[in-house]
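Format notes (please read before filing issues)

Several people have asked whether sequences and structure tokens are stored in separate files. They are not. Every record keeps both together, in the order shown below: the sequence lines, then the token lines. Line labels are part of the format and must not be stripped during preprocessing.
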Amino acid sequence: MTTPDLLRFAFGALSGHRLRTFLSLLGMAIGVAAVITLTALGEGAQRYVVDQFASIGTNLLIVVPGKSETTGIPGIGAAAHDITLEDARMITRTIPAAEKVAPLVVGTESVAHGARRR
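Then the structure lines:
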């Protein structure tokens, strides 16, 4: 079978089943559009997050309590250390490059007023 014969056969099959051809093309177009849209949304979300972190600045240090400090064999001598207000004051006194220190406590608590609770 030659190339012109193959093209004639394919064109005949496509023109003989117009609805099937249209629905196939529509399905492919919707699939390609969905992939492009989701890729663009993912890329936009990634750029937004990166921009938000970049807007914080390059001279920010966040210390989170609860990390285990280990010495020797892992698991032996591991103790969780909480950060206190005295630690924040010590950072201010001993590190001149630390321009601002902001201690922060994060937690949850119920608040009630009358019959409303949050």
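For reference, the curators noted about this record: The chain has three helices and four strands. Residues 49 and 55 are 10 Å apart (CA to CA).
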